[in-house]
Amino acid sequence: MKFGSALLLLATTRSILCAEGNDSVAKTLEDTIFKAIETGLNGVDIVPVDGIDPNFRACSITSSVTCAITSTLDDCEDFVIPLEQCRDIDMTFTYRYCNKEKDDDVTFISEKTTALFETLPIEGLNYNDLSPGKCHEFSITQKIDTCKRFFSASLKVEGTKGPDFENGDYCYAWDFLRIFIKRPCEITAEISSCKIESTKENCDDFIVAIDECQEVEPTTFTFKYCNNEETAFRFRTQKFRPLVETLLITGFDLTDLQPGTCREFETTRDINTCKKFFSSSLKVEGFRGDGVGDYCYAYDFERIFTGRPDDPPPSNGKACDVSSSVKCFITGSDQPCDDIVVPDDECDEETDMTFEFEYCNFEEANPINLIGRKKTIAKVETEAIDLNLSMLSPGECRTLRTNRKINTCKKFFSASLKVEGRRGDNNEDYCFAYDFYRSYIERPQTNDNNTGGVTVAGECNVSADITCTIEATGEECDDIVVPRDECMTDMEMTFIFEYCSRELVNTIDLYPELTRARVETIGLSGLNFADLQPGECRRLISKQKINTCNRFFSSQLKVEGLRNGIGGYCYGWDFYRSYINRLEQNAPSASSPNPSPTDDEGPCAVTAQVTCTNVATGQDCKDIIVPLNECNEATPMTFEFEYCNFEVSEEIVLRKDKTIALIDTVSVDTLNLSDIPAGACRRRIETRNINTCNKFFSAQLKVEGFRGGDRNDYCYAFDFYRNYIQRTDLDNKEPTPANEPTPQGPSGACNIRAEITCIVDDTGEPCDVIEVDTDTCDEKTDMTFTFKYCNEETESFVDLIADVTTAQIEATSVGGLDTSDLDAGKCRTLIETRQINTCKRFFSASLKVEGLRDGVPNDYCYAFDFYRTYMTRSDDDFPVPATDCEISAAISCTYDKTQESCDNLVIPIEDCESLDGVTFQFTYCSDDKDFPVVLREDKTDALIETIPVANLDKKPLLPGQCRTLEVNRNVDTCKRFFSAGLKVEGLRTGVDGYCFAYDHYRTFIKRAPSAPTLKPSASPSLIPTVSVMPSNAPTACGIGRDERRSRITEIIELISSSEDLQDPDSPQSKAKEWMLEIDEFDVFCVDACSKFQFGAGVFQRYSVAVFYFATNGDSWITCGGESDDCIPTLTNIDRNDNVPVFFDNEFWLSNSSECLWGGLSCKVATKCLDRIEFEANNVNGFIPDEIGQLDGLRFLYLEGAQNEEDYNDNSLQFLSGTIPPLIGELDQLLVLDLNFNELEGSLPEPLFDLTELLQLDINHNVSARTTTALVNYCQAFLTRFRLSSNLVPDWHNKSQNRKI
Length: 1300
Hints:
By secondary structure, the protein is mainly beta. A seven-stranded mixed beta sheet has the order 64-65-66-67-69-71-72, with no helix packed on it. Strands 6, 7, 8, 10 and 11 form a five-stranded antiparallel beta sheet that branches. The two termini are 19 Å apart. It contains six helices and 74 strands.
């Protein structure tokens, strides 16, 4: 929900918090009313009042966000960049918030006052009280990825005014900035002509007396649109909008527009010439380059003023003579702001400056009627200045002088004056003048005592650096490999933030509000903001829990300040991102470098393989053993990258931007990226120096391309090579696991040891040999872990480092480790008992010990032990295998109309269908010869597009067994491609030997022109017409149409009353007619949400259709019957929700599943509706009783407007009537948001039975009467409740209502 204006809250004498878990609500509530405006999720104030102050008024504060290109200072709104040149661009965002009160200070609520860039909180807000007429302002610079479509920033300010913080009037302001990145494109849109049919005159020349005007005057408009590009242009048909007045014109040719061509279209429409003017417009949007190039936009708007015989002649054809100018002076002097010079150490955030705005009418005889509403406006920075907007007489000038506080620590500041109006008493000519003033603040040159010369105090030298290690293993986060089935939401990682002054002489005064460290979106405390001395470095070490089920994680460090002595801005920044590698690769395996040649059908036969040889010894890199005291930072090793095409006849055209080789993270240059002939291989040999003091090193090769150059026949291969360097113990020379030293490097091997043992408490036996039957396993089996760490040095002590000496069981830290100095020959033991889940496949523990021998920084000590034990089952039917098993997954597809493979589809665009039948075959096999594979039901699934496939047999696969599921689905062949996926996971014998297979099927639909003799079919209507079929022709699953109608009617009559169904104008009657006569989606043949077995999907689909007709869906702005587009509005989806959902952006009442209609989402498991969400979508009418049938609904967002300003501008319609009592049937409802509507009456009592409800928002409605039940309900369950700007009862006088 968004707000853009100040909100009102009553002054109070005391407040009572209504929140979950709070018992402080007063026992007597007769004198209370609710004040609940934007108080967030923490609670709602219930406030007693003695009466409303007649002088009470809303608190006046403002907030604004602006954006400028850092290098040029141009407005971000005007930025244009070709897609092929897109890159990271520095942009500066300025956040400003002001107190517009005349008398009262504003005290801010810090936890409610937030600035965001995208979704990241921005630090630097000043929470100090703001005096009347004063502003706070700060700027940040961000790197913007201009390859994205848009970016955003916002500023929300909340507080109270007046000296009494607890009882002052509530203040709220919010600004949201979204910038869409524009691309250059040479297309044009033009309304090339307009003619009156009765006289054949141009519309511009048409003159008609007011007593002869016609309300219906046929007028012909010509629309012209051209492609001046060198490539074809593809239209976005839903964004092509030709209008006459507000009437949308149809019938245009929107096939691809070829280079250098134009199209014209004429239409005749009736115009009312009794009106003062009429208008037409043409908007064209699309892509150049057959739909794959830059986004293009063109627009033309034509307004024709209807001429009258008694109109005065135009003013000699001259432009309207109006002027505007802006000047600036240092307050109290005549010095222009242009000449200002301010040293860095003398700059001030509040320097007084005087701005002079002058605007003049230089017409000789005609006055100018100024236009307000943001047309005639003056600004200093982004703050608007009030002007005199009365008529400007001929020869009159007006001057406004105003003083403002300017931040001279910034690089520049600006002001502007825009004047718009109409000349003459009849407002015939348009007038416009604009002046923009910008002053750059100069910095003086100063003497440099070190050199004796004159230097400019430029930027100083400060650095920022981030490193990250895995707590459990000690390896760098960059190299983390986590199988998908072993990922966890709370893996501990250690981040080191280091920031250094590289200055030789001068200290750096750090800015605390701008110097910050962050992991993901969490701001970290603990940075030292004291002056940074020359050459000084500081570190912040922070342990954080990272979700390794995500694709990546990130952190950042920013350091800002001023160099003392000679000035100069200091800035250092580092951004760290680590992508989490998976062992599973959805690509052809490279483990067999020589696969059998294919017949150019099926998967593309391309391979990738990486090998490595030690240059000094000639041995395989995997066999090398390097003692830590002999390791070398530059050991030469030779890597061989081989990639082959094993196709029989087809060459492979490589994608040059996607085929890459890396050694560690450094690219390998000069790969041969020319086409690979059939049967050929390529090799690239590269020798690199490898640091064998590290724990491991890696290399990878990725190959992508197209078979035969056909972009629909994709080829992919990938190989990842990682080698762990083995160490030898100096005494017994036996290999031990690798242990990574810190960057300081070893100085002789430090002899310390780490060891973990585990005992099952009930039996006393080691955990390694535990046997637990599957039917007797326990989630809480007590086990005792012993962590032992020893200093085996004969003379030296080890100074343990507390921050990095850690123990863990599973992913949870173990407390109590003694990290004091460990004397020579001494050991320490920590015993910890934990409850372990023996129903899992395995559990683990780790111990890491780090320190310094005798406290010497260069003599580093490191030891690590990792303990993992796998559960064995005594009730297994087969021996437990030791290695992973082999299973396979494959998808094929057949086009129903021709029975040809979907891989070869050629469908002209005019012949495509949104519901085209195809048949998918999902085949999965066990290639294991000896053991059955027990499939994991929660991990084995199939999808077509984003919709799960039902009836997948998940029983155990016997050795050598295959299964095939055949599924018939309708796909949209007007889209560029469609896809399907099959994933199979399990365990061999159900205990050990992990099994995984995956296939992803995607086919690109080729286009070809129709035969010349064929006439293109008409554009399909939004709602399909009734199929012309025999009345009882069977549907796809064998149910006759008469039977289908009968069954649907029977179920509908159980839902709605007979009175509603017999009324032809009721939403229920319209929904029934739509399901019986128009809808072709067969609710009896698909896996759909059903309340009862016989009900199939009728209950949900019918109820949603009733909601559509009850809320006048044809008038919706998006996704309705007359809408131009359907853009998903599910902005509140929580990606961490443990209930998986799916959704799409289909129009409502289309033949797809209702789960795919825009604004809805459904649960994956049940296909039942999870959410309805619309905001400012012109959803109007009433909420029908049938909403109660959607009893799986958790979220109902029906906000009528985005903010109070939109709510009051009369352009939207809203929900009215009362909230139906049957909403109490939604027993899973978590959020009910009905803000900004025209609902009235008391909240229904059944609503208070919803014990799961957390958020109830009903502010800005006609009336919402409170009851004791509502107050008690708020106290017991809700975490957020809004009831602002409604009419509520006066508890002393029940006949009076008050507006809050």
